[in-house]
Amino acid sequence: MAELLGRYKAAGVKRIVALRGDLPATSHGTEAPGEFGYANELVEFIRVTHGRDFQIEVAAYPEMHPQAASPEADFAAFKRKAEAGADTAITQYFFNADAYFDFQNRCARANLKIPIVA
Fold it and tell me: Which helix (H) or strand (E) holds 47?
């Protein structure tokens, strides 16, 4: 990952969408195989190794990630990504606008100030 980020920087890339990615169909847990089990770990790695060289965007799930144990656990995962250094969040498609507004309200109550793009 360090080598890939170095190539991105050398190529002039300024923005990264840091995602855990879908788990393999054979996965039995919620942690991804490889260097990083969760997106917040990738965000933290980028910040530690490259400071502010990249704008980092992360995923947000107003209606809860399908693999989350609960809405509270899902929000805690989002909060870890924001606190690890994400600049912006992009939501997954959602069907209920109230879920988006509620998500923004939860962010405000948690003092998370990153923009959340629907």
Answer: helix 39-50
Domain 2-117, architecture per CATH: Alpha-Beta Barrel (3.20)
Mean pLDDT of 9-13: 97
Q: Which residues contact 75 (CB under 8 A, 6 or more apart)?
A: 103, 106, 110
Cβ atoms < 10 Å from Cβ of 115: 11
CA dist 5 and 32 (Å) reads 20
Q: Give the gyration radius of the chain's Cα atoms.
A: 15
* CB distance 63 to 99 below 8 Å: yes
Nearest to 86 by CA among 35, 45, 37: 45
**28 or 59, which is more confident:** 59
Largest CA distance in the chain: 42
Mean pLDDT for 83-94 is 95
pTM comes to 0.86
